[in-house]
Amino acid sequence: MVLKSVLIPIGTYGGELFGMSEQRCKPIQRVADNALRIIANVGKSAPMHRIRQEMGVTTINTRASDLRERAYFKYPTLRTWISDLVKQPIRSQTSTWVTGTARWMKRYCQTVGRGNTVKALQHRYTVNDKTKISAWIKAHNMRNTGSWMDLQMRHPDIKLGLQDIGKIRMGCYWTAQRLAKAGLIPKMYIERCPFCNKNTPETIEHMLIECFRWNSIRHETTIFNIPRLYRTVTIDQSTNNQALNQDLDNFAKTNIEVYSFMQLISKIHLEIKFNCL
Ligand SMILES: [Zn+2]
Predict the structure, then answer these.
(1) Distance 200 CA to ligand 1 centre (A)
(2) Percent of the chain with pLDDT over 70
(3) CA 55–ligand 1 middle distance (angstroms)
(4) From ligand 1's centre to the CA of 189, what distance in Å?
(5) What is the tens place of the pLDDT at every residue in 57-100?
């Protein structure tokens, strides 16, 4: 992936110096986020933390801070003049590179040691992430990264379906209900599915499992797995049955049928949604 192998290494070049400050990393992060949005094919309002998780990309700040932490522990062991500089830091009223790094780690990491900076920052991002989609992923005990990206190479014929599932996982899929709420199609579709004309909103679950407009397509693709999927989706959350929740995750990972289903409905889906405009 170009972002991981080119853009982020360029963006964090010299991260030993500017890491551990969200503010300093912001301009670079903006560029990386724009690239990520283009790759994921999502809009400006997309939940970036969830998308980074799904794509397996870290923030510029995490990477740069990790570099700075690494340097803090590594430089004193080197045989060049940098070790003398770090071992005998200049005394100054203001924060220097050495004192600044130590203070940051003491303040934000529970224990000072190699690798704790990344953990502290990841914890910070997770706590600050209040999006619905992240809560959903957590509630269903799903893994952070889906299989749809790797499958794109092996199954180019169902690329649309794979990308749609990716969008669902990243909380960026536009169901009819969401379009109606945003005022892009008539308000009546907040409570009504434009595909089967029933008085139920078109949600992800309705589209995948219930909507009878897709019955014939479902028959060709997901029909054998539907009872299992249905049981998993409608499971009572209070029982918190991890095995079943995991099942939904595994189901989407191992079964190409869901992707084929999305592929087959995607074109009609788009057409009808556009006709509603
Ligand atoms: Zn429907």
Answers:
(1) 7
(2) 87
(3) 30
(4) 11
(5) 999 999 999 999 999 999 999 999 989 888 888 888 888 899 99
Distance 202 CA to ligand 1 centre (A): 6
Distance 270 CA to ligand 1 centre (A): 14
* Confidence bin at 215 (pLDDT 50/70/90): confident
CA–centroid distance, residue 160 to ligand 1 (Å): 20
168 C-alpha vs ligand 1 centroid, how far in Å?
17
118-148, pLDDT tens digit by residue? 999 999 999 999 998 888 888 877 777 777 8
Q: What one-character-per-residue DSSP string does the chain give? A: -HIIIIIHHHHTTTHHHH-S-HHHHHHHHHHHHHHHHHHHT--TTS-HHHHHHHHT---HHHHHHHHHHHHHHHGGGSSSHHHHHHHSPPP-SS--HHHHHHHHHHHHSSS-STTHHHHHHHHHHHHH---HHHHHHHHTT--SS-SHHHHHHH-GGGHHHHHHHHHHHHT----HHHHHHTTSS-GGGGSS-TTT--SS---HHIIIII-GGGHHHHHHTTTTTHHHHHHHHTS-GGG--HHHHHHHHHHHHH-HHHHHHHHHHHHHHHHHHHHH-
How many A from CA of 28 to the centre of ligand 1?
Answer: 43
Give the distance (Å) from ligand 1 centre to CA of residue 79.
69
Which residues line ion ligand 1, judged by CB < 5 Å? 193, 195-196, 211
13: pLDDT confidence band, cut at 50, 70 and 90?
very high
Mean pLDDT of the chain: 83
**pLDDT tens string 233-273:** 554 444 455 555 555 555 554 567 778 888 888 888 877 77
CA of 218 to the centre of ligand 1 (A): 13
